[in-house]
Amino acid sequence: MAQKPTPYWDYIRVDALLSLQAGISAEAELTNDEVMFIVVHQIDELWFKLILREMVAVRTLFARAPVPEQALASAVRGIRRMETILHQLAAHFALMETMTTRDYLAFRDKLTGASGFQSAQMREIEIVMGLPELERVPLGHEGSYLTALKEHDGTESPALKRVRARLADRPTLRGAVLEWVHRTPIQGSTPAEPGDAAKVRAFAEAYLATHRAAVERGLEAASAQSLTKADTKRLEERAAHEIASARAYLLGEDEPEEVCARASRIRCALVFIESYRELPLLAWPREVIDGLTSFEQAFVIFRQRHARMVERMIGRRTGTGGSAGVDYLDTTALRYRVFRELWAVRTILVRAEDLPPLENPELYGFAGGS
Amino acid sequence: MAQKPTPYWDYIRVDALLSLQAGISAEAELTNDEVMFIVVHQIDELWFKLILREMVAVRTLFARAPVPEQALASAVRGIRRMETILHQLAAHFALMETMTTRDYLAFRDKLTGASGFQSAQMREIEIVMGLPELERVPLGHEGSYLTALKEHDGTESPALKRVRARLADRPTLRGAVLEWVHRTPIQGSTPAEPGDAAKVRAFAEAYLATHRAAVERGLEAASAQSLTKADTKRLEERAAHEIASARAYLLGEDEPEEVCARASRIRCALVFIESYRELPLLAWPREVIDGLTSFEQAFVIFRQRHARMVERMIGRRTGTGGSAGVDYLDTTALRYRVFRELWAVRTILVRAEDLPPLENPELYGFAGGS
Amino acid sequence: MAQKPTPYWDYIRVDALLSLQAGISAEAELTNDEVMFIVVHQIDELWFKLILREMVAVRTLFARAPVPEQALASAVRGIRRMETILHQLAAHFALMETMTTRDYLAFRDKLTGASGFQSAQMREIEIVMGLPELERVPLGHEGSYLTALKEHDGTESPALKRVRARLADRPTLRGAVLEWVHRTPIQGSTPAEPGDAAKVRAFAEAYLATHRAAVERGLEAASAQSLTKADTKRLEERAAHEIASARAYLLGEDEPEEVCARASRIRCALVFIESYRELPLLAWPREVIDGLTSFEQAFVIFRQRHARMVERMIGRRTGTGGSAGVDYLDTTALRYRVFRELWAVRTILVRAEDLPPLENPELYGFAGGS
Amino acid sequence: MAQKPTPYWDYIRVDALLSLQAGISAEAELTNDEVMFIVVHQIDELWFKLILREMVAVRTLFARAPVPEQALASAVRGIRRMETILHQLAAHFALMETMTTRDYLAFRDKLTGASGFQSAQMREIEIVMGLPELERVPLGHEGSYLTALKEHDGTESPALKRVRARLADRPTLRGAVLEWVHRTPIQGSTPAEPGDAAKVRAFAEAYLATHRAAVERGLEAASAQSLTKADTKRLEERAAHEIASARAYLLGEDEPEEVCARASRIRCALVFIESYRELPLLAWPREVIDGLTSFEQAFVIFRQRHARMVERMIGRRTGTGGSAGVDYLDTTALRYRVFRELWAVRTILVRAEDLPPLENPELYGFAGGS
Description:
mainly alpha, homotetramer
């Protein structure tokens, strides 16, 4: 052990770290409120960094073909860690709320040029995750979110550089995961095998038939209750709509023709995994799907909690950076969904006893045991 | 001590309690998932009961005139307790999410006639709190939420009776609190004193002037950044709108003429309390306002978390009871606000150094010390 | 659908449930504090009920030989659910703490005969889990905890009946899980195979050698720092002790001779699972082990949080039921460990690069992939 | 607004911040686990910084005599903020636990010279708070905790300098608060008034009489239950001990003679505040006391949670830095109490209806109302 021992303060870089809370003045001039405000944002950035590292690692694992089974365990752990961090992030808002509006306003003028929207890492997370650029909610002024990342003299900031580099770094987590989901054996058939399309279509039809029966059973039961005619009619229309939507969705009919079959296979695979989730071979896919669902849910919860904190701190006024403030945050919380397929299939799942019979069970490891 | 000692199981009624989880069958036939589903709802009802008891007690305290100062401490404690319970309630959703969609569907058919909308206590809480009946979001079928509380043969259920009794029990918490806020001394003047209206108006004008200056200062700073003309124009319009809205709001111009002065005084009082919050005499009012704000925020967070859980469990399908499901929950979360004034004034607060000078400080206890 | 629709209030049994909060008086006479006290205990009992149901189900799964692989997924889900419930339970203490000592004392005299120690379900959980009767910390009076479950006239209470029934219901969760762990293939060898004992011993020796090296490496590094001779000596003694303890532990030398080999195999299996945790065949064992560790950790956290709440509410006075109060709770928190092996092996784990080479990797599924 | 707008990344110092996670190598060489380990410690240090700033501010407020009433509101807010931060800190352990023991060991050797015990800020918090140096639990090697803060070549580190400066910065929070508590009017009498000692003694005697009656009432009730003679005797002894301890404590008999009267007055003041907590004049003292109790409770919870995390990560092995590991943490959690008086008085509180009658109520503001 020639290595010289490193004390805690060198390993953690405590002194450098604790010298960064001065904002744009000398720290001694700041109120406790402002130092807290800076610290909470720094902690957010540190958490973001961890999320990014994990997300890139998980993405890279899924980008391999085939994905080695041991890697899946590691991927699931990474996804769970990202979720845990989001819970921490959401919890921090409670601390911000120990500051009053009036006391926040005391230093808010300094922040005219600064805004949470300028957090490059938050944008990077959305990009790596796979948020389509076209679905972004405008910030409330012209120019994309990339404009907000320029220096005030219009030059490229380090923040903008980082974001641009991420935009060029492909595939996204969403892309890589869906590619992997696409290869899932459905009723024992894989994409590479001849006749796969027909088998997948047969599964889809069998599944849609049972889904239709479930919706009709629900309608019948609801109609048995004392409803007005208008209510009954509304329920019937809604049931018809649910049946038609499920069909369109599972067959990928809402997608352009060239990707329709691929979209359909991915969605069928997700329904298949959710439906036969106890099969040994589906254990890891199920964990991945559950993990990503939890993660995206935690993201929505984080965004909504963020909106609640901002509303509490400054009400409905215009945000620093000129954004629409609370409304922008509530809108993005409900609109930004990356793993849309994971959420959509939940709408059309059916109970276990109604599922089409499993074909080729031996491929999914029924034989085993321990 | 003639009293016979009571063992824990009699005091807590453990055996009676543990016999209530059979749903509509024998408990032995139920899956763990269904028993959990029932238990979580029962726990929700128990928490609701505590919230209701506290809320009625707090309401009754504020309905007294004057409210004794010791009662305020107790009211604040009750409000904080209600908030703490809401955090517990929001945390329970994580448990529900340990159940998969497919496994929930296994027993969902039983619940055709049952729906969380039929929780009488949830409706009672909204009523006592003071949610206006006209602002309720329709459930998705004809007939009000009261219809959903009838027995299936159309007769009055115990749930409906309880809700009707609450509707008749006045004032609401909101009504009682605003009445008390209305009596707040503003710049040393109380409603009973001659000249109060003029003094309140003078405070409002002074306050609006400083608010206007703050908005204009913000606009100037934002404009100094490299923005397009269109952006600058948009910011100018928004600033003008903020100034005009603040004026209309603080003077109560959005209210019918006969209540306009009262509304204005209440809003000025809230601005006054938030602005001079360190004054000893305003200590309890501030705690009450902060407590109610936290409580309503926790309520919104609870509703949004509820929406997330439902979306995760069943996606976007029609809810049991025929409601619109997740959308209904997200809509009510954002739309239902009882203490609207508490949220609105946050939008127009200004920093301490810009506040109009305090008049009659001696009335607010500056003399004291300990 | 001949079935009559069931409204929410019948399914959840709302009215019966809400009639159980009167304690030993009429509910109208109770303070909000006492109703809260009763409700929180009732909620605790409801959570306990869910834990018990899950724990019995998990125990029953592990009592099968072999345990079907699909059952493991379900077992892990049950274990995670139990952990989630414990987090909820720990969170409730915050609510209890909204009550002051003085206000709790107002009704504490009523509870002379009642004590949380009389919660039959808490005892049942400990029993099913596998807490040895001999390790129980005495309550502070003569007679076992079973005595505390008698009616005051000495007859058998329903609580006592339930606890006695659990004591007769075998195996415990601990027993069943360890039996299953015992069958884990170690370096490819299973207990039924000839030569298993020798192979396990060889693994143990190889592992102990690498453990020894790790301890010595740590000692060398620590000694390189500027320590006094006395400190160096103390570290050397501690290192020697760690090496000897690891050996005694892994070879089961602390156990009676007749169970020594079985204990050693179980401990080696746990070390093996933790060490080669990415192997596909060990995926579920690892999840089970991690889940049980998290669960027991959550249990300790719950107990310590309980102690903190009681200390805050009543300080260090004698508990109702005559127990030693806070000290009893803190002692049980640290002393009650059921899955001792899971905790003990953590002490002797080594880093991946130092592990003995894996033998017979093909048995653990290295070949696969997806 | 001549001021140049500052973008988010300059205000938060994002780039400098994100360059500090390399430990003692290049960051690219680190595993995600090690980066997470570093980040979590950095976040801890940032929270510690906020706690320290608040604690010093609160201390400084209480060091004034008299403490202005408006300052109390601010002090309470600071105390609550410190508590909220501790909850955040305790929550972070869940993230650390996403790392396995084996994977932590992969980089643990690097940390031979580093240890959490070397966190200067943690020591500073204990010092400002008022932990007596004599009560510190030894780290497991010779030399005080200050030795652990030296550089490895024995020179003074920046960490040691900071800690030494804190040791010289007096009074502690404990000292300042108790000085303020000491001035509390008891039955209307303040220390400066003639006859104060007699009045305080009279209050103490009246209070002890009612405490004695309460203990005897409890004993009688407990004895009425079917206990063995030995149990009854044990309860009698314990009751006698409780009565005697309460007396010794409230009269300060456990303290050296020269501070005995002062200690007694402080303890009587705390009992007085807790007992007549609704009195308007005692509103802020009560909030301060409640806040400090919550804060210290949160500190104990944080320490115990820390012990649980360490036990989970590395079991019972020797800690980095050569400490006794988990046992050290559990011991400090239970032994380190700074506001001992706040905890001790909870043991001797009585219910409201038994309290001695309040004298000079007009001094406590009964006349008021709003």
